[in-house]
Amino acid sequence: MTYKTAAADIALRDQSITERIFENLAARPDEVVLTDGLSGDAMTAAQFMAQVKQLAGGLTARGVGTGKTVALMSPNLPHYCVVFHAVAWAGGTITTINPTYTASEVAHQLRDSNADILITIPMFLETAQEAAKAAANQPVVVMGDAPDGTEPLSAYYGTPIEAQVSVDLDEHPVVLPYSSGTTGLPKGVRLSHRNLVVNVDQILVSADFKAGEVAAAFLPFFHIYGMNVLMNVHLAGGGALVTMPRFDLELFLQISQDHKSRRMWIVPPVALALAKHPIVDNYDLSSLEQIFSGAAPLGGEVSDAVGKRLNCVAIQGYGMTELSPVSHTTPVDHPKSGASGLALPNTQCRIVDPESGKDLPSGKEGELWIKGPQVMKGYLNNEKATEETLTEDGWLKTGDIAYIDEDGFMFIMDRLKELIKFKGFQVAPAELEANLVTHPDITDAAVIGIPDDEAGELPIAFVVTTNPALTLEDIQAHMAKTLSKYKLVQRVTFVDEIPKSASGKILRRVLKGQVT
Questions:
Q1: Among 91, 322, 461, 493, which has the minimal tally of Cβ within 10 Å of its Cβ?
Q2: Cα-atom radius of gyration of the chain, to the nearest Å?
Q3: Is pLDDT larger for residue 500 or for residue 372?
Q4: Which domains does the chain have, with CATH numbers?
């Protein structure tokens, strides 16, 4: 059975993502649209558009325009948005990099995306330079106060490009965020202008977005949730953002209070804090009408507790990088506890038996498949993974086990895929396992995720070792040499062997049954 929302489909615009945003910004040139939450520095719509056009011109003059890929490694700042849209306006591709990555992780993405240049901030300059040297010796450009001997981004501003450089809206990959998909190591997700634009419009309609909404933007712009739902939706929908380089509960609450935020865009760990932390009572959040949680499933009990405490509607949606990112949202006027929502306009979904491939009826659990104009073009340089994820007729296999009730609401129950969601970040077991076995005292390893109220899931390891004195701290220190902090295993169980199938695949369900 194919499920479709009762909402009417929306028309597909023939615009680039930056044209879509400029259409709205041009009507409000003097409004402040971006503010730095730490410094208070503000940027109007007119200033933003002017800087985008000037940087696009300068990048093009330097040969970093049409067909080129720019890697962007930075926390949330107003100028992050400028760089992103300048590259898009110039006909290029942006690959967004987690600034907490280690040099080896950054180098992998630089190589895999074939990036031509890396833009970062002074705080991450050393890592950026080490990574660029290890990859293909890409130029490293510094946004902000560039140290002596480095090239500042300001040098790249030039004669403005007044119109969008011509691109194929359906095929050109405007952005390459990296995702582990349903399994395996991080892969570049090819998202087109069409993908981003239609998802912005789908969200604006489904979320009942209103002009003038201001949100505290802590969700990282390098992640598809912060990139398209927060950055692009607010700029295209008449809203504004106050950027936060990292999550800080007090600053988040202060910004939400001072700007009378109508809604908060959050992830489950923040929902838990809003439900339980005593400091929340110190702030006037009476303007809140809605709290929207994404990036990982939010339990109905926590969602209900947040809504009750803040006297607003707490809802959630469903998405993934490969969906640009949203396919389902819960309507504010018809919330359902624990549900991930109804399909967006233009979006179809199915619940499929993973074994037989047959569609399942309402109320039965199976793999969630999705089809719509927000579905990615495929993975970069990985035809095998693309074929495993996308069917020939355009259905995206999400790797999530779900069911759809009699009202069309979708509920996420489990993961068919191996991916672990730790505080909204993707952690691929295969990547951690490959790292663990490089330890001289570890002969085999397996990683699984276990539920955790605060983090969503915790990555834990089962390890076969030749050294009885090996500790969790030893293992974490080894992993920290090449992996980001959020990828470190939080627990370790030492075992004699890792259970595997006849074909050599790790039997993760067996391991999950051993967790106490």
A1: 493
A2: 22
A3: 372
A4: 420-513 (3.30.300.30)
